[in-house]
Design goal:
Strand order of the largest sheet: 1-2
Order of helices and strands: HHHHEEHH
CATH superfamily: Winged helix-like DNA-binding domain superfamily/Winged helix DNA-binding domain
CATH topology: Arc Repressor Mutant, subunit A
Radius of gyration: 18 Å
Strand content: 5-15%
CATH architecture: Orthogonal Bundle
Number of domains: 1
Shape: globular
Oligomer: single chain
CATH class: Mainly Alpha
Distance between the termini: 14 Å
Length: about 150
């Protein structure tokens, strides 16, 4: 592991601080868009997680782990989504206590509608950016996301 100098360490903190502020501002803006759909932001986050691999069944434990959130809060959100038929729960083979969760067509549709609402709302954020700049940012953020999702958990 390469050791960062003091300036690099401070820049690293600044990057995370800016990402946190951007996340807060983005969440507030996104939440406003979701009001008409009666979709609380935590449920959108869950739909987003399930929509990436819609055929993959997940347990509450695996969702909590992937989102790095406490299981009780994830369970509560999942219960609300099951009641709305955005997710489906099937018994896990060999374990009657565990359920396998999948996103329903209704959940996929609501997720697609939310994304369609977000695209124009967030597009103006990138006025003055060219495609190359945006792709470079995505590449760097993806690198950071992958590290946090894998090595950052250790």
């Amino acid at each position: 592991m390469t050791r960062l100098n003091e300036n690099q360490a401070r820049l690293g903190w600044r990057i995370f601080n800016w990402i946190g502020i951007i996340n807060q501002l983005m969440t507030a803006r996104a939440s406003q868009s979701l009001v008409e759909m009666k979709l609380p932001f935590p449920q959108f986050v869950m739909l987003n997680h399930f929509s990436h691999r819609p055929d993959e069944a997940k347990t509450v434990t695996s969702v909590a782990s992937a989102l790095q959130q406490p299981q009780p809060g994830v369970s509560k959100t999942i219960q609300k989504m099951l009641a709305r038929k955005l997710l489906r729960a099937d018994p896990a083979p060999g374990d009657k206590r565990s359920k396998l969760l999948t996103i329903t067509p209704k959940g996929l549709d609501l997720h697609a509608r939310a994304i369609a609402e977000f695209v124009p709302r967030f597009a103006e954020s990138f006025d003055g950016w060219d495609e190359k700049e945006m792709e470079a940012l995505v590449e760097r953020l993806d690198r950071l996301k992958i590290w946090l999702d894998t090595k950052g958990r250790e």
